[in-house]
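quick q for whoever's on today - can somebody do inverse folding on this one?? i tried earlier but teh output was garbage lol. tokens:
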């Protein structure tokens, strides 16, 4: 199963993921032998987030043309769509988005685009956890933190692909089955690793509130965050000081930065609280760039878990099913 996404960039804004062997097909298969019917074009699938794109690439393989509107490391909460995004949505046969308002700018663009594409809110196949935002309860969009939710998302992606390209259904099912088997192994491995952390240290303090599903699934407590579920929030000086006090009260040995958020403020918090800022930072709202430890969904969960386990005093171990760990 491919595990590393190859990427190209369009005007620095849109991440178009192309598997090497798909590119080979495009380069060598353009000419149609005289007298033969042209091969049907692969369905055009657009994913709004890199996490959904990673899962979709595994299921769709070379039977789809896949575009991710966000590139690795981009923050879906604050992303501002560009003209290329509109064109991609208009040309799509299937649009896969997270939902629960994870990517508000892209959801608004999609609804206004007039596209005739099949649209699926992949994250909304999961019953959400609720969080407080501005005094109201809202669904937490970071559903992929619980690997069992990623399995449900994979099944939804599989079914949507079969709907738009039934002739490729057998391959979509086979690809999904392989991915789901690996995700089940990952789910069990994460639980085993977190269980090695001393009970008093099983407390997670991060930059923003993106790890409720992860914590709820694997036995951690979210002891504090610098900002809430959306990265567009700006913490006050009082918020920073309250978080410093919470860290000192919990006695946790480390807190965590995130790859999609400027680490300056959380670094200041760590210095004032006199605790370690864990390295590497956590992948929260996006997979990493190609070649980084978190450049697929599976690898980002592995990287996060190993970072958490090491920083909080657990027993680190590689994920056996991962080819690079």
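ok took a stab at it. sequence:
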């Amino acid at each position: 199963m491919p595990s590393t996404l190859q990427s190209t960039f369009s005007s620095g804004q849109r991440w178009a993921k192309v598997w090497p062997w798909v590119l080979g097909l495009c380069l060598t298969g353009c000419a149609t032998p005289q007298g033969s019917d042209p091969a049907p074009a692969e369905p055009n699938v657009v994913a709004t987030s890199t996490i959904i794109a990673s899962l979709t690439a595994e299921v769709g393989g070379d039977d789809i043309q896949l575009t991710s509107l966000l590139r690795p490391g981009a923050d879906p909460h604050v992303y501002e769509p560009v003209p290329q995004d509109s064109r991609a949505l208009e040309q799509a046969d299937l649009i896969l988005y997270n939902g629960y308002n994870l990517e508000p700018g892209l959801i608004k663009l999609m609804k206004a685009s007039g596209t005739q594409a099949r649209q699926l809110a992949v994250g909304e196949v999961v019953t959400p956890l609720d969080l407080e935002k501005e005094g109201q309860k809202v669904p937490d969009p970071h559903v992929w933190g619980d690997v069992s939710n990623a399995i449900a998302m994979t099944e939804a992606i599989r079914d949507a692909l079969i709907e738009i390209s039934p002739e490729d259904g057998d391959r979509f099912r086979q690809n999904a089955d392989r991915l789901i088997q690996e995700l089940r192994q990952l789910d069990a491995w994460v639980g085993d690793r977190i269980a090695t952390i001393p009970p008093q240290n099983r407390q997670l303090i991060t930059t923003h509130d993106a790890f409720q599903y992860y914590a709820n699934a694997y036995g951690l407590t979210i002891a504090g965050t610098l900002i809430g579920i959306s990265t567009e929030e700006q913490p006050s000086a009082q918020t920073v000081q309250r978080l410093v006090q919470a860290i000192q009260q919990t006695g946790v040995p480390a807190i965590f930065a995130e790859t999609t958020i400027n680490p300056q403020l959380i670094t200041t918090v760590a210095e004032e609280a006199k605790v370690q800022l864990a390295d590497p930072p956590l992948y929260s709202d996006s997979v990493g760039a190609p070649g980084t430890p978190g450049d697929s969904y599976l690898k980002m969960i592995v990287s996060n878990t190993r970072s958490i386990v090491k920083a909080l005093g657990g027993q680190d171990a590689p994920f056996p099913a991962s080819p690079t760990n």
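fwiw The chain has ten helices and twelve strands. also The two ends are 15 Å apart (CA to CA). so keep that in mind when u check it
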